[in-house]
Amino acid sequence: MEIGKMYINGEWVAAVDAGTWKVHNPATGELVGEVAFGGGVEANQAIAAAHAAFPAWSGLTPRERAKYLLKLHDLVRANRDDLAERISAEMGKPLREAKGEVLGAADNFLWYAEEAKRVYGETIPSSVPGKRLFVLRQPVGVVAAITPWNFPVNMVARKLAPALAAGCTVILKPAESTPLSAIRLFELMEEAGFPAGVANLVIGNPAAIGEAFLASEHVRKIAFTGSTRVGKLLMAGAARTVKRVSLELGGHAPVLVFADANLDQAVHGVFESKYRTSGQQCICANRLYVEDSIHDAFVEKLKERILAAKVGDGREKGVEIGPLVNAAAVEKVMQHVDDAVSKGAKAVVGGHRLTEGAYSQGHFMAPTLLTDVDETMLVCQQETFGPVLPVLRFQTEDEAIERANHTNYGLAAYVYTNNLSRALRVSEKLEYGMVGVNDGEFTQTQAPFGGFKESGLGREGGHHAMDEFLEVKMVSIALD
Questions:
Q1: Do 314 and 418 belong together in one domain?
Q2: What is the CATH number of the domain that holds 174?
Q3: Cβ-based neighbours of 374, under 8 Å, separated by 6 or more
Q4: Are 68 and 206 found together in one domain?
Q5: Order of strands across the sheet with 122-124?
Q6: Does residue 145 share a domain with residue 42?
Q7: How far apart are CA 115 and CA 260, in angstroms?
Q8: Per-residue confidence (pLDDT) for residue 57, from 0 to 100
Q9: What start and end residues bound the annotated signal peptide (predicted)?
Q10: Which residues are the active-site residues?
Q11: Cβ atoms 392, 380 nearer than 8 A
Q12: Which of 114, 122, 174, 301 is most exposed, with minimal Cβ within 10 Å?
């Protein structure tokens, strides 16, 4: 098996100390790859390369930068199946989801190729005679991007595409558990002809690489998706050199299902939101609030849908729910289930590991639905990041909103109702950066993505993401 390498300054390189990292399929335990495993030395090499490449890359016209992104878009789409198979092999998600992720990644490169041309300046009327005021928007500089394992291609694209379009150069540090997809994406970037040093790939020790990013005066921006705990550490570390940061952190998404909702539509949306990616995404439903008068009917419908879902290796036909990423993830999910059951909750579906037969070598959890839940339970206080959904009853709209907002998180929320006034009213009162109304899958390339409170800073997606990688410069000219 060939060892995957890092990509620094246009060259594929091994770790300085020859260290490697083995990648296993979470569904089967099989070895699917081995990659170079670096640290601070390699990170500093990549920073130097990105710093050296910045003047030429930022000096290109937006149309010239767009040509590279458009070529990459075409290559990603052409290699959809290969990338999807890598995603499924290294993190377990079903191939159907993985193929959708790849197309989403391609859309990012297409969208930001166009947005590169729309970085406009301003002319401001001066209050002083004989002067002219102009505003320029210029790339921030070298960007360090740190991405998670749950979307190992699309999360990379969501950071690289706007950064490169804006004229920044980039160092990517992907999650160490899912480097194979990132390596393939960088092979396509090389094929697209990106100049050396413009985009660099460093795989390895998170603490050592992160420290190199934070310590360097050349790195002017950190773009991170991951846990709130790590995001806070990066934010504090960035203060040492006053770097800009954008953080897409943890979520604890509430779903509010009102009695006037279309129950079939709500069941479909809740299932997709909760059990897609096996519940391992920051915007997935984490607390389900159902109006008391429809609670039993809704739970029964959702139970039937969950029982109909096939759990297994994501590469198998018909699988809707794959494994969790590792054993630690299963342990955390079971801790939440055991805590809830010990305090009186009932598992109407699931509630246990899957360990027999085809599941014996993987990290599988039965999709779980809990009733008789209250907010003292861990499953209602923490982000579970697994296929477990607690159901809680509510009586009034105001009560539902208050309980939904009672958290330090504020990433995504969902509302199911056929009352337009209620939809608008509740959406405005929910303290979340994104709200899906009768919609369990709202993410689109052209829309802003990000959260309130401890769920992050800044936005990815849409034209808003370009602002994250641009500085605003004022120029005042005194005329003769």
A1: yes
A2: 3.40.605.10
A3: 343, 344, 380, 392
A4: yes
A5: 122-124, 131-139, 470-478
A6: yes
A7: 40
A8: 99
A9: none
A10: 248, 282
A11: yes
A12: 122
- Token pair, residue 196, equals 């050396």
The structural domain count of the chain equals 2
Contact present, 43 and 208 (Cβ < 8 Å): yes
The verdict on 235 and 298 lying in the same domain is no
Full domain range(s) for residue 473: 6-249+455-478
pTM across the whole model: 0.97
Rounded Cα distance between 262 and 386, Å, is 26
User: Tokens standing for 107?
Assistant: 């859309």
Location of structure tokens 């070529």:
71
pLDDT per residue rounded down to tens, the chain (480 residues)? 789 999 999 999 999 999 999 999 999 999 999 999 999 999 999 999 999 999 999 999 999 999 999 999 999 999 999 999 999 999 999 999 999 999 999 999 999 999 999 999 999 999 999 999 999 999 999 999 999 999 999 999 999 999 999 999 999 999 999 999 999 999 999 999 999 999 999 999 999 999 999 999 999 999 999 999 999 999 999 999 999 999 999 999 999 999 999 999 999 999 999 999 999 999 999 999 999 999 999 999 999 999 999 999 999 999 999 999 999 999 999 999 999 999 999 999 999 999 999 999 999 999 999 999 999 999 999 999 999 999 999 999 999 999 999 999 999 999 999 999 999 999 999 999 999 999 999 999 999 999 999 999 999 999 999 999 999 999 999 998
Residues 224 and 273 in one domain: no
